[in-house]
Batch of 3 targets.
Target 1
Amino acid sequence: MTDTTTAPPGADSVDPPVKAPIRRLWGYARHHLRLLLIGGALSFAGGIVGLVQPLIAMDVIDTLSNDESLTRPLVYLTAVVIGGGALSALGPYFMQIAGQDVVLTVRRQLIGRLVRLQVAEVDRLKPGDLVSRLSSDTNLLRTVASTTVIGGVTDAFMILGGIGLMAWLDPVLFGTTMSMVALVTVTMLFIMPRIQSATVHSQKALGDMGSLLERIFSAFRTVKASGAEDHEIARLDEAATVARDKGVKASFWEALAGVAAFMPVNIAFLMVLGVGGARVASGAMDVGTLIGFLLLLFYLMGPISGLVASLSQLQTGLAAIHRIEEVANLDSEEPVGAVTARGGEGPAQVVFEDVTFRYGEDLPYVHHGVTFASSGRGLTALVGPSGAGKTTVFSLIERFYPATTGSIRVDGVDIADWPLEELRGLIGYVEQDAPVLDGTLRENLVMAAPDASEDDIAEVVKTARLTELVGKLPDGLESRIGYRGTTLSGGERQRVAIARALLRKPRLLLLDEATSQLDAANEAALKQVMLDAAERTNVLVVAHRLSTVTSADQIVVFDAGLVRAVGTHAELVAKDDLYRDLAASQLLTAA
Ligand SMILES: Nc1ncnc2c1ncn2[C@@H]1O[C@H](COP(=O)(O)OP(=O)(O)OP(=O)(O)O)[C@@H](O)[C@H]1O
């Protein structure tokens, strides 16, 4: 469900860093803990074996100087070199596998979410930004979920061990060092949230750039025909520059974190030297302890900068989780699989009763109390001026949006009470625009009816007048038809969409502007297809061209979100002014 405290994707404001992402990161990583631990253990073993190597080298030298056989130490040395190398390679490899597995887990969850988002959510989102969240943001988790956590924990243990030793060696120098450790801690508390926030902004800028690119490709021909390339390039360039600037800002904080860790340790080094020197001079401490303390401090520099780097990386991961979680918190629908018509048999009845609806709380009402019924087999045409709310009727029947008030019933049951899968399973829907997806013609036809037989496919190809198209395409049904079906004509796209809807053997067929892009011959043929379908099922068609629906069983005239008249063509010409005007303007009858 929507979390109103979370900024929607694409929104300009970004929430301040929150603690929840750490829990989420753990939630993702814990399923892959075994691999992570194996990887960590192998890396650790590699490190230990690396430490043994100098000892064996010493053994080789001793053996040489004692004039003994070199076989044993050389075998050890070879085993240590090969074993150490293998362990050092396998450790990170296993951790990277765990990292990729974490990314896969997150992507699977996100894909499920994205595809099931409610239509209303997608209306206000930018697809390019969502793509960026799925690809780029999830990728940021890879390192964080693998090497960062293990490395950070190892470094933290080493630092704690070193600090314990320092306290044991000399409490005064320990206190001196701790003042600097406190300084590092406070500085990190200040810097780390800024790294996270800067990374969120940087990732958002990447998302914005993706959105702009997606926007261009979704209307590529229009951009070219409008000569808008330069303008669009400038916008993309600006977005790329913003992404660069935001990236630089994140790098600035990361660099500052490195310095802020390094400097206090160096200062601590000098302070220990000063205070320790004075204590040695006063006899309060021996030189050996001072040297041991200094060596310890020197040794800790590595783990400290390692820990700070891990914490910085962790912030980028948390930023990614922040953006991923924003999507996970959007409203989604109940799962709907690839469904075919089920439920009852025969044509489905549809009743609208006093339905009001608006697309958003801040938007005007589109339906002001729509009432009509389409009671089973036959053809019902929805006509009326542009923007009157005809397409919205279909969106409500499909439950893309919930009606604000009133009731919509299918087969006498309120659609809110239908399992979504079953409701959509009985409907065949031909959208107004872009009804074809990238892929082959066959994939497009069977996407709503994956189990359709070859005979069924052949039948709808014939019914939707696609035989000629299939014949001329190089690979017939297996031919790719391009992004949004760009290799097809507008009429061909619509016929493919109609064939797809018919293949589902729907109990209710919704055709939106189904004949608007057809030539006269095909329009007449499809009018016949509609009438044929109406013999078997309930067909609702939104039509601008009245010629295609004059023989409809009933025509519902919409005007400004209300049904103003219902009747046959002849009845409406006789009784309804608006319909008569529409008919007259399309030369069907004298005004
Ligand atoms: N997703 C949406 N978000 C906000 N408003 C929308 C949305 N879809 C449609 N509208 C608005 O709702 C109103 C009715 O739209 P609808 O598409 O139902 O009209 P229509 O009668 O089918 O028009 P046309 O004949 O031009 O297709 C229009 O004013 C439109 O701007």
Target 2
Amino acid sequence: MPKFAANLSLLFTELPYLDRFSAAAQSGFTAVEILFPYDLAAKETRRALLANGLDLVLINAPPPNYTGGEPGYAAVPGGTARFQSDIRRVLRYAKVLMPQYIHVMAGYASGEEALACFVENLRWAADFAPDQMFTIEPLNPVSQPHYFLNDYELAAEVLDHVERPNVGLQYDSFHAQMIHGDALTIWDRFKAQIVHAQIGAAPDRSEPGRGEMDFAALFKAMDQSDYQGWVSAEYTPTTRRTQDTLIWLRQ
Ligand SMILES: O=C(O)[C@@H](O)C(=O)CO
Ligand SMILES: [Mg+2]
């Protein structure tokens, strides 16, 4: 079986933020990811990780979050100054939190100019923080209309242009299924570039086991590939208590 992590921005949200760490640990997780840890001083999140023996797999850039704001500027022509200052701020958090990955969000854009801008900005981030691993993640256009990075072919093209060992592909079964209609085939096609994976059912982004996807087949494919990374549960639980949706984990 793959090694599973819990996304604390979507899981255990029935609890206050700092209580989600112990809930995840008690459910058997040894690692978590937090999309936007920026509402609290980094040292408080660090303390919660340490107290519960949890590794931090991933955080997102940009800060603080995108409630009412843009989902990043990395591919937005004219947004480079904002992108660089966001990355600098994320790296100050990363110094304390030590996430394995920082997911760089592309933002709203389209076309050749946006592609060139995304490539340049990713190279800049990779060279500015050579010891930090970064990821990019295609998001489906139903959930994120007008988001630049909206398919896996495009993500692979971006990575080919970026040519940096510390920038890789973030796979998400929910988005892959929504974009391409077959998350398993997408895993098989792009697994060589995937450094981090997330799981959720489609079309409603609920827990594995529901919806149109065969998660047993996906986990088997992950196991049979060379993938050594985390598989993070990033879904919206259909019951009030997240714990009651973890049947897929116990199986
Ligand atoms: O899949 C998602 O929506 C997330 O992984 C993400 O980073 C967007 O905020
Ligand atoms: Mg995701």
Target 3
Amino acid sequence: MLELRNVHGGYGKITILNGVSFKIPKASITTMIGPNGAGKSTVFKAIFGLLQIHSGQILLGDQEVTGQTPRQMIAHGVTYVPQGRNVVPQLSVYHNLELGGITAPNQAKVRQRIEAVMDQFPMLREFRNRKAIELSGGQQKQLEVARSLLLDPKLVLMDEPSIGLSPNMVREVFQTLIRLRDSGVTILMVEQNAKAALALSDYGLVLELGQTRMHDNAKKLLTDPRVGQLFLGGHVHEDVAVDGR
Ligand SMILES: Nc1ncnc2c1ncn2[C@@H]1O[C@H](COP(=O)(O)OP(=O)(O)OP(=O)(O)O)[C@@H](O)[C@H]1O
């Protein structure tokens, strides 16, 4: 579904990604972990067309999409849910959902998708006329996730979906991701809540100093002592490039 081949890139003259390579299959959840500043969010920006790629390739299926614009990526079925709160606080839940489909040529279809998405998230139907700011943090995150589904994406890039949420809300957001994966969507996420995220993921990626250092089954990474070492501030010295399911 998504492949990065030795991607190098950065902001202006600053290089942040120094060789990122991985391949993730359709209908899977992959969690990307690594120390602060490793370049995890930058990987998302590279995929979504928000970063200058110096070399390497990004492929969606068989199609090369390196350097395409966010609009083109959306047209390919990719959505990006950035870190933080990204709902429009004074607009209603319904209006926020409509914004997710604003680029679609067929607005009648968008309205149908809103109904379908509200079926998936009954809370949103219940609060459809409330201002987004009146929702709890977890509900706002669910609204964002729901909005990202308006264009029926194939690949969702999700940066820290659980940040600032209570444990119950984290569970709800994670359940949502599992449901999405089970409906055929491919998810790549970054999570500080690494253990819980790896536990629900199919694959895990470790990024360090802008390079992929490990890529393996999520369960294997969870029990790998080097991953523990990394979270304690150590460094991974060996590359592991096993890709299985
Ligand atoms: N717009 C920008 N311009 C210049 N440098 C940037 C920009 N955004 C991020 N960086 C730098 O890129 C590096 C990687 O940042 P990035 O946000 O990708 O890391 P991260 O692994 O997601 O970190 P965290 O876990 O702290 O969110 C950092 O050194 C950061 O300062």
